TrEMBL record:
Homology family: Belongs to the NAD-dependent glycerol-3-phosphate dehydrogenase family.
InterPro entries: 6-PGluconate_DH-like_C_sf (IPR008927), 6PGD_dom2 (IPR013328), G3P_DH_NAD-dep (IPR006168), G3P_DH_NAD-dep_C (IPR006109), G3P_DH_NAD-dep_N (IPR011128), NAD(P)-bd_dom_sf (IPR036291)
Name by which UniProt lists this protein: Glycerol-3-phosphate dehydrogenase [NAD(P)+]
UniProt lineage: Bacteria, Pseudomonadati, Pseudomonadota, Gammaproteobacteria, Lysobacterales
Pfam families named in the record: NAD_Gly3P_dh_C (PF07479), NAD_Gly3P_dh_N (PF01210)
Residue numbers binding NAD(+): 11-16, 142, 257
Organism: Ahniella affigens
Chain residues that bind substrate: 109, 257-258
Keywords: Cytoplasm, Lipid biosynthesis, Lipid metabolism, NAD, NADP, Nucleotide-binding, Oxidoreductase, Phospholipid biosynthesis, Phospholipid metabolism
Active-site residue list: 193 (proton acceptor)
Secreted keyword on record: no
Location of the Glycerol-3-phosphate dehydrogenase NAD-dependent C-terminal domain: 182-321
């Protein structure tokens, strides 16, 4: 597929808009599709996503539409950036138009709700295995990307030439896109860090201190590595942008909605009120349950994820979750055999 391909970005929330702006800034012919006709008309008029990214004007050449058929009619490549709960639905609608791209990538972080399946598995269900697939992930707050602040992401695909094409289109001044071929590790890192950001936010909201924050992040990484190992991903992927990079950003950066949810819960604000006040997608609310579904299937002990999931299901308070974590028995830092030793 040529690098001057035309790209359709599906999902006009903060991240879809920011990535469409990156592509258009780099001269890629880009159409941003969103489902809300009035919102897309307002964006076309103002040349700005006033709801999510009010301070950043669209570059010339970025087309916006609420008409899915016209967005896809001449698109060579599709980039899905919906929340995980809308991933299947939007991809099915896109395929129902009869149009087919040469490649499909996504920047959604999460699992299919209710099944714990990876989004690459959902994508394969719908488009089959004929298309190259890629995930775009890494430490990247939409607001900073839209403002043109320096950012590094990574693009993983089993089809390495496709990862290269997607990354080359995104890469430019101020936006670095690396590549890899570990789809499982990359997807897992982007999904699990949201759950661990809630845990760290809770600890900070409860004013447990900086030692607790660092301990939570590091033990959270340990949980990620154990899941990655069990699912056939490569632990070293989690040492890069898709793992440690995004984990540190989301656990410590107050722009993170997942961290802000944890902060609110740790300060005693009820879940529904906290989610309402954030007013945007908070992927951890579903992802925690899906990671626990995976943990049960593979017989994994994930204490932090388990307590976050119980807090988000309102079975326990954050204080009870903390007490359970601190009461755990002493043990080796890594389970035997995790790194092959
Ligand atoms: N915002 C970020 O900084 C950022 C960065 C990296 C990854 N992500 C990931 O990108 C994904 C999207 O998040 P976001 O930040 O853009 O969310 P957002 O809350 O800013 O916007 C969500 C958008 O999804 C749309 N949407 C919801 N249900 C839909 C449906 N059924 N069909 C079509 N559109 C639908 C909404 O209309 C809204 O425009 C998430 O998985 C998130 O984890 C976000
Ligand atoms: O705001 P969050 O918590 O969804 O995080 C946004 C991005 O995923 C950070 O890389």
């Amino acid at each position: 597929m040529p690098l001057n391909a035309r790209v359709a970005v599906l999902g006009a929330g903060s991240w879809g808009t920011a990535l469409a702006m990156v592509l258009a800034r780099h001269g890629v012919r880009t159409t941003l599709w969103g489902r809300d006709t009035a919102a897309m008309a307002a964006m076309a008029e103002a040349r700005c996503n006033a709801r999510y990214l009010p301070d950043s004007l669209f570059p010339d050449g970025l087309a916006v539409t609420a008409d899915l058929n016209s967005a896809l009619s001449d698109a060579d490549d599709w980039l899905l950036v919906t929340p995980s709960h809308a991933f299947r639905e939007v991809l099915e609608h896109a395929c129902a138009t009869g149009h087919r791209p040469n490649g499909l990538s996504w920047a959604t972080k999460g699992f299919e709700p209710g099944t714990g399946r990876f989004l690459h598995e959902v994508a394969e269900d719908i488009v089959g295995r004929y298309l190259p697939l890629a995930i775009v992930t890494g430490p990247s707050f939409a607001k900073e990307v839209a403002a043109g602040l320096p950012t590094a992401v990574t693009v993983h695909s089993e089809h390495e030439p496709y990862a290269d094409q997607v990354a080359k289109r995104l890469h430019g001044p101020g936006f670095r896109a690396y590549t890899g071929n570990d789809v499982i590790g990359a997807e897992l890192g982007g999904a699990m860090k949201n759950v661990l950001a809630v845990a760290t936010g809770v600890a900070d909201g409860m004013k447990l201190g900086l030692n607790a924050r660092a301990g939570m992040i590091t033990r959270g990484l340990n949980e990620m590595i154990r899941v990655c190992h069990a699912l056939g991903g490569r632990p070293e992927t989690l040492m890069g942008l898709a793992g440690v990079g995004d984990l540190v950003l989301t656990c410590t950066g107050d722009l993170s909605r997942n961290r802000r949810l944890g902060l609110a819960l740790g300060r005693g604000i009820p879940l529904s009120q906290a989610v309402k006040e954030i007013g945007q997608v908070v992927e951890s609310v579903q992802t925690a349950n899906e990671v626990m579904r995976i943990a049960e299937k593979h017989g994994l002990d994930l204490p932090i994820t388990e307590q976050v999931s119980r807090v988000l299901n309102e079975e326990i308070t954050p204080a009870e979750g903390l007490k359970a974590l601190l009461a755990r028995e002493q043990k080796p830092e890594y389970p035997p055999g995790l790194f092959g030793s």
